[in-house]
Amino acid sequence: MIPQQQSDFDHNYLKPYYGKLFPFADIFKWMTYGHDGKHPGCDQSYFGRREFSFTLKGDFYLRFQSFNNALELENSIKEKCPLKIDIGPVYTVDPAKRHAYAQGDNNVFAPVERELIFDIDMTDYDDVRYCCRGADVCLNCWPLMTIAIKVIDASLRDDFGFNHILWVYSGRRGVHCWVCDGKARRLTNEQRASIADYYRVYKGNENSHKKVSLMGAALHPFLATSYTNVLKDYFEKILLTSQNLLATEERYEKILSMIPDESIASELRGKWQDSRRSSSAKEDINVVRWEQCKQLLQSGKHKAQGLRRCVEEIVFFFTYPRLDMEVSKHMNHLLKAPFCVHPKTGRVCVPIDPNQCDDFDPTTVPTLFQLLEELNNEGSRADVNGEWNGTSLGNAIALFRTSFLEPLQKACKEEIERSYNLKLQQSKNSVGW
Amino acid sequence: MEIVRPQSHRNLFSSNDAVSVPSLPLYRSAPPLEVRLEDFESFAIDRLRVLKGISDGLSRGKKPEEMEKLVKELWKVNMRHQHASEVLNKDIISHFVLRLVYCRTEDLRKWFLSMECALFRYRFRFLTPEAQRAVMDNFDLTCRAVNNVEFESIKEKLGQVARSMGQPSPTVDAIFYKVPFEEVPELVAGRKVFISQGYAYVAMNQVVSLVATLFRSQLSKTLILTNRVAINCCRKWTSSIREQEKHRLTPIVEALSSSYLGPDFSQPREYAEISLKDIDQVAKSSFPLCMRHLFDKLKEDHHLKHGGRMQLGLFLKGVGLNLEDALAFWRAEFSKKVGLEKFEKDYSYNIRHNYGKEGKRTDYTPYSCQKIISSTPGAGDQHGCPYRHFSEENLRAALSRMGVNSRAMEDVMDKVRNRHYQLACTLTFEALHGMTCDAGINHPNQYFSDSQKILQPKKDSSAQNLVTARE
Asked: What is its EC number (chain A) (predicted)?
């Protein structure tokens, strides 16, 4: 467990952070989704209908903030210095004017667009990691997040056909995902819930049997692909050893309790109780024991119903992504904006490249103190690219732009142009004598 | 549609069509029919009986096979007509009259939409294959069948999906439909289809789900439009109908929309008001298991996650706990864990929100059994329906803590195994109170008030409020 540095966060330091480092222009470009007024097909009201919310010092919470342009957004944030900025949906009308529109039963103030979002939090894995608990994370358990990114990202692209996906470090113990395709933003709550359920494998809590239940003669292609491409290797090559999943009696009993056939479980227990210390110190004890376990479960000797998928069920239990369902299901759910600073750790919520997520290290993410020190050391450079160039934040912002923002903007503009031309065609066709 | 005077009766619809092929109308447009005034009301009420029967069946947790039988029966009993040729007319007219009535508020629309969709779904299931294909044609589905070339390329994946559901792999002549995944949310949620590049591959035997979703989205859109049109329509109608008929029509429409659909416990009855000092006692004697569990966990951990706060908080509101006492109750528990200041900042707002005192000021209604049973409690959650969400051992332990004897326990567990969760709760009620509960438990607040009625017979048990349902 890596101890957090004590004072990496100080509210006073947010002012220079927002003053010189926070990428307002990029966030604005993202949120306009091409509606920047440069094309006749642009919807000038689009940005103004987006909700932002600020958490201020003293736990004051300002909801339904909206802005007409980049400057208003920037000035408000610089003035208020929020501890946290949340992004909400785009509504039918400007959130600041919502009271004028909420008349009785027919509520005309409603969300119309919202990114498809996912929130994966390490605390939901507390029953499968032994290195940390609660808010702590370390390099031994972080691979669980890497797995989640790989599995979900691949599926969002291959299964659902989404392209514009942003992964962000939450600043402490998890990751967020923003799916920004037009198709995704226009999903209904029911459709969002169906996608969240598609991804749901682990069911239950302390009151039920915590379960991964993979019945059936085959796995659904999505689960099969995830297992073959990601889960199996991470389990066998990384987590088995780094978490010592079979090294002690307490830990191997947990896995044995997942085997529905008592004769197999006792056979394994017999083997393991005797071999306290592995005679061949070469091979890791966890790896050895897992091989023995797999051998028995897949041997075909004991062919009971529940055994068919037992190996996969164990692997899924320890590795498969655990999403917070409620976050994804509702259009009006707020989510923290990228590039915020986490008040408990001082770390910036930087984007994560899904193609390089194996290399992501949460313990080396730039902190507020670190960035401001870098700024001071470099002196103030009126750089044409903005001051962030001289700091560690540069890479994060470059990643945001090249791998996410630029392709997204291109696609948005094409979409706006397409629907504008379509409307022109239609109105031409309808004008007739 | 035109309302005609009682004496005249003309039918513009061809009688042959209605009899030859039993068809499932899609209600896309109001037909050019003339309706007798008495039929206007009676047709609608007959259909309403069907819809309420469906609503009842669903809230009792009936399984799909049971629902199918129920719908068949309800339709046969209520929607027949002495002239066979009139059956289709009655179907269409009754739908449109109810549509007019139920389009007026969000809650009514939601209920009507749910029930009409359930009705459509079950009726579709017992159509002949030809009739089903006719409906699918109407939704432009037949053209989205997967061709042989594509089928070959995904055959293996389709096979995996089928086998994951315990079904055989599809044969070479199996028909699959390629539709945007948005059109089959149920199948996506259950991982019952192969999805690739945004398209779901729907098997023939899953087509019901697809058609039902398309029907639902179509009906949902038109209901909102109908609301706007109806306001104008009513003005036109009332001005063109003669005086006596106008006075007959309006009350009928009014009465239909406020038909008794079951109490929703949004207005707590005066005599059931409980105060802070009573809570501990009534929790032991009259709370259903789900609320008892939440209550005990709250006392133990001095905390509940959001789902639990909502489920228990709204229940307490329904039971008669006023806002001030609610705040005191939650504050007393939460402040032991998070401190007074944090409670005021983070939690008191939401409690006031539940009572309609903040934000958009919706006065939230306590959750029914149906809603609670269908919730999905996750890690760290304590809400949900214990009969459904607890493991057998945990459920037994919880029931014996409540005081259920071992013989009743077996009956209860038997119901649970057969997934009759509300019946299990009813049996628990009966075991603890020593009295039968004929109506069955449909709502935690109903459990509470029935329990209090037995335990405190002195209080006046006046007739239940007839309020509009707001599920």
From this structure: 2.7.7.-
